């Protein structure tokens, strides 16, 4: 496991804390690392409240370390104003030089724009760390934005020989 994978795994763990409370927003975790030590962590706790990156930055005690840190985020930082300001602006304003992203956000108002703004501002951006795991984390959010439908789970019981219901009286042969 690489260093990036190690910290991205932690982002995914943190993001899962928001399961059931972030809809319609995605699950996102963020970790800030300085010289091999985690100095800040956060996740998106509830729709309309601060995003993972904001919570991670706010948890850092010595903000001067941000200028030499790496921020890990399981999903591309947002680049638009919704109920909260863009997270990519926060990263730029705090002069965090390195950004590691699990996967690109498929939401049309973001969809690569956060990455583009970070790169244009001179940040070192790495994308695609544990991408499959980050995509799995937000399969419901991704299905909605990519396929314009809900993510559906079908559950049924069947017999060992593959039947799902007994034969009705009408279906029995005489």
Task: Provide the descriptors you would attach to this structure in a database record.
alpha/beta; five-stranded mixed β-sheet
Which residues sit in consecutive blocks of at least 5 with pLDDT less than 50? Answer: none
In the sheet with the most strands, the strands line up as: 2-1-3-4-5
- How many helical elements? 6
Structural class: alpha/beta
**What is the residue-averaged pLDDT?**
90
SSE order, one letter for each helix or strand: HEEHEHEHEHH
Largest sheet: 5 strands, mixed
How many strand elements?
Answer: 5
Helix content: 25-40%
Beta-strand residue percentage: 15-25%
What's this entry about, in short?
With 174 residues, this protein is α/β, with parallel strands linked by helices. It has helices spanning 3-15, 52-59, 87-93, 113-120, 131-137, 139-147; strands spanning 29-34, 37-43, 70-75, 98-103, 124-127.
List the helices and strands and how they pair.
Layout (H helix, E strand, L loop, with lengths): L2 H13 L13 E6 L2 E7 L8 H8 L10 E6 L11 H7 L4 E6 L9 H8 L3 E4 L3 H7 L1 H9 L27
Parallel strand pairs: 3-4, 4-5
Antiparallel strand pairs: 1-2, 1-3
Explain this structure to me?
With 174 residues, the protein is α/β, with parallel strands linked by helices. 30% of the residues lie in helices and 17% in strands. It is built from 6 helices and 5 strands; from the N terminus they run H-E-E-H-E-H-E-H-E-H-H. Strands 2-1-3-4-5 form a 5-stranded mixed sheet, sandwiched between helices. Helix 3 runs parallel beside helix 4 (113-120).
């Amino acid at each position: 496991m690489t260093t990036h994978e190690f910290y991205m795994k932690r982002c995914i763990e943190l993001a899962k804390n928001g399961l059931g409370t972030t809809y319609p927003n995605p699950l996102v975790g963020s970790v800030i690392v300085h010289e091999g030590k985690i100095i800040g962590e956060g996740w998106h706790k509830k729709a309309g409240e601060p995003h993972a990156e904001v919570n991670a930055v706010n948890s850092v005690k010595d903000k001067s370390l941000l200028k030499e840190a790496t921020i890990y985020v399981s999903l591309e930082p947002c680049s638009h104003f919704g109920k909260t300001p863009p997270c990519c602006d926060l990263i730029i304003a705090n002069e965090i030089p390195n950004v590691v992203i699990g996967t690109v956000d498929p939401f049309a108002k973001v969809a690569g724009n956060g990455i583009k703004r970070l790169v244009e501002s001179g940040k070192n951006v790495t994308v695609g760390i544990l991408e499959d795991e980050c995509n799995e984390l937000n399969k419901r959010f991704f299905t909605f934005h990519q396929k314009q439908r809900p993510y559906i789970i079908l559950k049924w019981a069947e017999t060992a020989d593959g039947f799902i219901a007994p034969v009705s009286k009408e279906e029995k042969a005489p």
